[in-house]
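Its record is set out here:
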Amino acid sequence: MSTANPERRISPSDIRDASFEVVGRGYDQQAVHEFLRTIADQLEADLRQPGSASPAAKDEMVKVITQAQILAEKFVAEAEQYSKDLVASARTQYSEILRRAEDSAATRQAVPVPAQSTAGDTNPIQEIEYVRTYTKVAQVQLRAVIDALAEQVDKLGDLPLTRTDRPDDSR
């Protein structure tokens, strides 16, 4: 009988290709070969079905799936923590920016009042001129801030192209 190496598992093709020595009073060769083909077909079908795996293979699959699930849970937890940290950082930055803006607005609103005479008579024309001058200065400052903000927004709109966004250079 020619068979496969006994140290490795027998495959369906090993069963199909098996041959036996003919002896005087033996079995019907045709029946033996038909039986071996049937066994090979069943073994091949069992190997193709995932549910027919050996217990050791099933244990290995369970271990791999469990490890994958543990890794997935770890990645989800890390992503959640990262997003929480990111939100906390954004809130801190928001609070700092708001505080600076409020401080800036408070200092700009604090307009020095012109000194009044001891007698209490103030010149309304001088006060009006002072308010006009202050208004013009404030207007110039606000325009400068708006222009600076617009420039920064324009810079944000001009993000550099990635390699996939650039047109092909066929040189």
Q: What stands out?
A: Residues 77 and 124 are 68 Å apart (CA to CA). The mean pLDDT is 75. The helical segments are 12-16, 29-48, 55-109, 124-157. Residues 55-109 form the longest helix (55 residues).
